[in-house]
């Protein structure tokens, strides 16, 4: 269409006397409406003094429809016969005439959005890119106030505020904005720069801006931030389900409107990973989340299993080992959504509008554990290739954390089973003490520790009470605990005193460290408390190797720690252990425990020890109840270490259960000693045991007179079994040997061993004691 010029004639009085067709197109006023009117009526704002002086410049006209029309106006005087100006011929430039200059063409064709505003935030110019963003031609925006052209939102108000700031301060502004645009169906990130436009006098006459679409960089930063957040947010616990929940919390709502994590069945159990099947795949739902409260989109409830057909995106992701993108309109996608609607029709309204799905396998160390699924319903954008890359990275990190949690749970279960197999299940019958115990494995990430305890019957109705703690956690710690537990039982069978037993145990730990590849002794170190209670003498003898001292509760209701000389932990070597001995009344309670009961990062040891002593004197019905009371009073809600607690209430064997004779070292008196023992059995009502007892007493006393040294003593103890003990001043231990056909001796101990339930010897401070036990006849 041929261009029609916009021109007008204005007389010396400022009235319009001529009006062109171009002027009508530009302003909407016809010649009849414009001619005769004051020209000022056609202005939207006053003309600047500079424009009046120079007779050219920017002028804002008012369109007949009411909106302003910016134009560049030029006024030429019309001269009369006398050369005086009788009026002005006014012309305007067409607003969107093709740019004639290279600079103008560069502005129009720039790839970034560029615009020019006047000082009142009204559009003066827009390039083609800006028009595409706004979705309207330049003519629809020129002269309009910016807030009139956009929705009233935070980003729009911020944009307008920055325009005003540049006008008022005259300083450029640079900032970033994440927002949409009228012509764009998704949110974009913009890097915006605004700067003032000045006239030759330096006054601000407008504001120019350039907006660069930085969405790709923005989303790259967002993906990097999400990966950084994943490194801190996923795997905070060594719990498989909690790790899956942390992944869901990371994905929803920023990355997905709905997300789920399904794991293969073997991941949640002790089994080894089987190969992924080619057909249908069964998985268990362990976590899911949604932007809608209650997660109504889920077709599978938490903890339930689901069968995934081969065509489903999760099954395809598992088999291929890579992310599977599915969009609305694809046959398999629509088939999958229909299958979900059939399985859980109640969630159908919440699945309406689902348009994109991303299924990513959870793979760690070459093993497939399950699949994570992300679905977009309300979000505008479909998942793309960049999303798949990000999802695979997130899934890889989460899978390693899940696999770590699975391995930890498996190792914890193994260590706990190993430890339980080594700890005493049913404490052996003995009359010296009444016992109760508790063992609480740690729930911390460090794993099961090496805490242990034991109750070992000894000869002479005595009993050994043991607690120990191996350095470290996990299966190695439990295995070392088992070694030490068996070693203590072996050394206890030799009936060594507590301080000597710990010395031998210390040597054993040092040797274990040397034999196990030269490990640091501290890595195999341990603490131990070994105590022996004698119900006849009513004495407790204890020695400690780096272990907390036991507490004792007396019948008068007072509790205190036993004063002991602390020895070094096992494995240090070269330092002595000292035993502490004290007399206990009948009914006293001895508490042995590991350091997990009183020590913690956030607790004061002295305060925890005082709390334990207060709890030990609480009135309860039984020792079992007292165990529970102590643990409840002293332990925090989540102990950071294993705890072993062993309580023993002392009993006493009275004079009516023990008979003692000093034996003169004369073989002629053996018969009298034997008769005294027989008379005592009669007094106890144990005549049925007299025959065997006579033989045992005769053999042991004779051997003591023949091979031992004075003083010699015979003692009978009536407990759960009948115990015969003969002590002498010699430290030489007897040995069983096979007597030949013509030997006159050597059959005595063999006879004792065959007639009694068990026999043995123990070293004493004055020599040795040979003992033999025989079962009592049933009552």
Lay out the secondary structure:
Elements: E1 7-11, E2 16-19, H1 21-27, H2 31-34, H3 49-54, E3 56-62, E4 68-79, E5 85-92, H4 102-109, E6 113-117, E7 123-126, H5 128-134, H6 154-169, E8 173-179, E9 188-198, E10 204-213, H7 215-233, H8 240-251, E11 258-264, E12 281-290, E13 305-308, H9 313-320, E14 324-327, H10 331-343, H11 348-351, E15 356-364, E16 367-376, H12 385-422, E17 433-440, E18 449-457, E19 463-473, H13 475-493, H14 498-515, E20 526-534, E21 539-545, E22 551-553, E23 559-561, E24 579-583, E25 589-593, H15 605-616, H16 623-634, E26 643-650, E27 658-663, H17 670-684, H18 690-707, E28 712-718, E29 721-728, H19 748-755, E30 758-764, E31 767-775
Antiparallel strand pairs: 1-2, 1-5, 3-4, 4-5, 6-7, 6-10, 8-9, 9-10, 11-12, 11-16, 12-13, 14-15, 15-16, 17-26, 18-19, 19-20, 20-21, 21-24, 22-23, 22-25, 25-26, 27-28, 28-29, 29-31, 30-31
Helix pairs in contact: 7-12, 8-12, 12-13, 13-14, 15-16, 17-18, 18-19
Concise description?
This protein is of the alpha+beta class and 779 residues long. The chain has a six-stranded antiparallel β-sheet with strand order 13-12-11-16-15-14, with helices on both faces.
List keywords for this structure.
779 residues, alpha+beta, six-stranded antiparallel beta sheet, five-stranded antiparallel beta sheet, 31 strands, rod-shaped
